[in-house]
Design a protein that fits this description.
Length: 355
């Protein structure tokens, strides 16, 4: 078994790790080949996190070629949409306020749509504010109210328009970033590069976003553990058994610091400029599109239980919301076919959301 997790303790004030998986994946990692089956695994660093790909098939050479294609795709996505890359589409937009997004239109379009459907709680133009906090970075701090209010003047997804493949704005200070959707998009694109004739099954894990397809050689599906939001890195409150589905979790424990007894996490509410105070510890979304899962888990966390569940229903996805009272709400009974719940001992209670 292997837990696909990454962590790098920071300064004493940092109580979370920079790269920490929200969910753990249990898969065989032994590169053992027989006449019938083989499996290969590779880890690359992209979109600000470690992305691990594990593939199953019959021909090791073909599997390794697919790993190479995945790695190249992840690198291409990173180069195209990361605001940290100088020549990315996002960076060009942030400097020139207009850019042709070419083949990447899908991710920009989805970011703007989820922003609209969440009433601006999720907003891909939040970089002006998130840069002030820099939570998980080298210069994390609590900015002043004046700084936040000034930065919020340049946070407005409605000031950006996407038409005929061109993203543009009249606000010369608007800054775009796709961090809350980029990992899901990256593994979605990488999965599209896989030759399914040669690869019978696989799992791509980008920290809190995971994509699965097919079944392992023994016929089993993939087991994905849901992290205990108040436990250690290896603690869980349940296991999801999945295939041909993606799963993404957003939580207040991924990157944060504490000051004067207050936890400041990295999921910012674009409407206030502060870390979301929604009464939730984590939100998990399960669907067949990892890009959508990534965006909705963030949006749902910011919106809170009731508005967040309404958003999940709008998109027709499965969701699990964990609140500060350790209630674990699910929005559809079909989740019970996927979830083995283990949280009772730690005081968690599994409940249907009844609105």
């Amino acid at each position: 078994m292997i837990d696909i997790h990454s962590g790098n303790p920071g300064k004493t004030i940092i109580l979370a790790v920079f790269l920490v998986s929200v969910i753990m994946v249990f898969i065989s990692c032994n590169k053992v080949s027989t006449e019938e089956t083989a499996d290969v695994q590779d880890t690359a660093f992209s979109m600000g996190t470690a992305i691990t790909s594990t593939l199953y098939g019959r021909n090791r050479e073909e599997l390794e070629e697919n790993l190479d294609r995945i790695s190249q795709c992840l690198n291409d996505v990173d180069q195209d949409i990361s605001w940290r890359e100088e020549d990315s589409l996002v960076s060009v937009f942030n400097r020139q306020h207009e850019v042709s997004v070419n083949d990447r239109e899908e991710v920009f379009q989805m970011a703007l749509k989820v922003a609209q459907d969440s009433g601006g709680a999720f907003d891909p133009t939040v970089l002006s504010v998130s840069g002030l906090w820099d939570i998980g970075g080298e210069n994390q701090r609590h900015p002043s109210q004046a700084e936040i209010e000034d930065a919020l003047k340049n946070v407005d997804y409605q000031a950006a328009t996407l038409s005929d493949g061109t993203l543009k704005t009249d606000n010369m200070h608007l800054l775009f970033e796709l961090g809350a959707i980029g990992k899901g998009y990256a593994i979605e694109q990488a999965a599209a590069e896989i030759d399914r004739d040669e690869v019978s099954a696989g799992i791509l894990s980008a920290g809190s976003s995971i994509l699965t397809f097919g079944t392992k050689p023994d016929g089993s599906k993939f087991r994905v553990a849901l992290r205990d939001p108040r436990g250690g890195q290896d603690d869980r409150i349940g296991i999801m058994t999945l295939t041909d589905l993606s799963i993404s979790t957003s939580g207040d424990y991924e990157r944060y610091f504490e000051e004067d007894g207050v936890r400041y996490h990295h999921i910012l509410d674009a409407r206030t400029g502060y870390p979301a105070d929604s009464g939730l510890m984590s939100v998990t979304v399960i669907a067949d599109n990892s890009t959508l899962c990534d965006a909705l888990s963030t949006a749902g966390f910011i919106l809170g239980l009731d508005e967040g569940m309404d958003l999940m229903d709008k998109y027709g996805v499965l969701a699990i919301f964990v609140d500060n009272q350790r209630n674990v709400y699910y929005n559809n009974e079909s989740i019970l076919d996927l979830l083995s719940f283990e949280g009772e001992a730690e005081g968690y209670a599994l409940k249907p959301y009844e609105g």
